Amino acid sequence: MKIFLKVATILLDKADPKLESTGFELTLPDGTDVGGMLLALGLESRLVGSVTINKKRRPLDAPIAEGDHVAVIPAISGG
What we know:
This protein has one helix at residues 34-41; strands at 2-7, 23-27, 48-53, 56-58, 69-74. Helix content is 10%, strand content 33%. Strands 2-1-5-3-4 form a 5-stranded mixed beta sheet, with no helix packed on it. It contains 1 helix and 5 strands. It has 79 residues and is mostly beta strands. The chain has one domain: Beta-grasp domain (Ubiquitin-like (UB roll)).
């Protein structure tokens, strides 16, 4: 299935392999959930603050469907 993915700039270098763009089309196996997508991107879930699917915040076990718009937002730290 193909989805449209946006990843925060700060996460580009954290993926393995590194991502080249903040927005791109991604092909995943049917039935992939948010956690599986992060694994496919080589992104550790501890680096991710939230993930939205079609502008709604979703948990790691949420399924992703063909044509979904997914955004990966980094965890924020500081003080």
